[in-house]
Specification:
The complex is a heterodimer of chains A (345) and B (74). With 345 residues, chain A is of the alpha/beta class. Chain A is built from nine helices and eight strands. Chain A is globular, with a radius of gyration of 23 Å. With 74 residues, chain B is an all-alpha fold. The chains are: A alpha/beta (345), B mainly alpha (74). Chain A: One of its GO terms (cellular component) is matrix side of mitochondrial inner membrane.
């Protein structure tokens, strides 16, 4: 991996998100510009980003980080597959929330010329995996990208957008830094993720303590994802879902793995304490309600893969209303119509 | 977190023993799980301590398993 000497940028969160970057004497970057149609309230603050940075730093500093990498490796390779499916070479690419670089390790120098790796945790950037593409590591928050407009041909993001506070704004910023005819390929956790864990903890906490508090963070629904991408300005959207089921010996091993991945809860409304009785009860409920035949318990990870393009004149557009030359009623005679068309050409 | 992580390591070590002890109490855990699951059926209502007897049995079995594997104090 090559690092252009000294190109480590530390970008602290600007004091007020709405202040134009020009006033601070900086070039116009994505974080300072707020698009005119944006209606996201500034008070949207669900996750403690400082704590998430500490958790990711801790996870990346573990003695055996590859023990917990399996999910991110799988999703990273799926995203790399989708990049290869697009028959184009990208000279400049950006990975938002890259972790240890799970996507870049699968891509080759012909497809992507140079890769910018952005993550909130410096330990993850220091322990990147082997990759052949030259990279530049940037320490930045996913919601405050320090890049100018129309910079990147390709932006990828794998399993990190579910911790951003203002998802519409993050997607708008990704759209902003893309060049026209650039593409964004992302993967996010979906609504059904870890539903077994959520239900078990909910039931156990209700039975043991009389009420429950959320322990699994809220995920985006697939309809909302389409709306968000459209609102951010993306064209030609594609969203598909995939479910990965991983079997664990029990609930405690699942929770340990989640912590090792850096996916511990960091919502402001989290309860600071989980009683041992409740944990024991939840493990018993999990095993009884969801176990497999061989005694292991499954955990479901639902992944949404999304592809969105930035508008460019060369892209196909929907035809004008009323410009049809054949009607659907003639679908049965389509073979005749096609051979007629070929003869007349 | 503390400098050498001594407290955290101790607490985490205790927690790592949980799965083994839970495995030793399979029957009680299954009974408790069935009781809670029954309350999720239509018409059931899950309230605090609905399955308290089953949970007490599970906790006693769990503590007994802990005593068996005890090595010089928790």
């Amino acid at each position: 991996m090559q690092r252009l000497g000294g190109l480590w940028l530390l970008w602290r969160r600007p004091p007020a998100a709405g202040v134009a970057a020009k006033g601070l004497g900086l070039r116009e970057v994505a974080s300072g510009v707020s698009p005119p149609g944006s209606t996201s309230p500034r008070a949207l603050n669900i996750f403690d980003r400082d704590l998430k940075r500490k958790q990711k730093n801790w996870a990346a500093r573990q003695p055996e980080p590859m023990r917990f990498d399996y999910l991110k490796e799988e999703v990273g390779s799926q995203i790399a597959d989708r990049v290869y499916d697009i028959t184009r070479n990208f000279s400049l690419a950006l990975d938002v929330g890259c972790g240890r670089g799970y996507i870049a390790q699968h891509l080759n120098k012909e497809t992507v010329g140079k890769f910018f790796q952005v993550d909130i945790a410096e330990n993850a950037l220091k322990n990147t995996l082997e990759m052949e593409i030259p990279t530049v590591s940037v320490l930045a928050d996913e919601e405050f990208l320090p890049f100018k407009e129309n910079t990147f041909d390709l932006v990828v993001s794998s399993l990190s957008l579910h911790w951003v506070n203002d998802l519409p704004r993050a997607l708008e910023q990704i759209h902003y830094v893309l060049k026209p005819d650039g593409v964004f390929i992302g993967a996010m956790f979906g609504g059904d993720t870890l539903y077994e864990l959520r239900c078990s903890l909910q039931l156990a906490e209700t039975e043991r303590e009389g009420g429950f508090s959320p322990h699994v963070s809220p995920f985006t629904a697939v309809n909302d994802l389409g709306h968000l991408l459209g609102r951010a300005g993306f064209n030609t959207l594609t969203v598909d879902t995939d479910e990965i089921q991983v079997n664990y010996p029990g609930m405690f091993e699942l929770m340990e793995d989640l912590q090792g991945m850096g996916e511990s809860n960091c919502a402001w409304n989290r309860k600071a304490l989980l009683h041992r009785d409740t944990m024991l009860a939840a493990a018993a409920v999990y095993r009884e309600m969801y176990r497999n035949e061989d005694g292991s318990v499954p955990a479901t990870y639902q992944i949404y893969y999304m592809i969105g393009w930035k508008y460019h004149d060369s892209q196909a557009r929907p035809a004008e209303r009323g410009s049809a030359t054949v009607s659907f009623g003639e679908l049965g005679k389509i073979n005749n119509l096609m051979s007629q068309g070929k003869k007349s050409q | 977190m503390s400098g050498n992580g001594a407290v955290w390591g101790r607490v985490r070590g205790r927690l790592r023993a949980f799965p083994g002890r839970l495995a030793a109490c399979g029957a009680e855990a299954a009974a408790y799980g069935r009781c809670v699951q029954a309350s999720t059926a239509p018409g059931g209502r899950l309230a605090k301590d609905l399955c308290a007897p089953e949970f007490e049995a599970l906790r006693r079995c769990f503590a007994a398993a802990a005593k068996k594997t005890l090595r010089g104090g928790l």
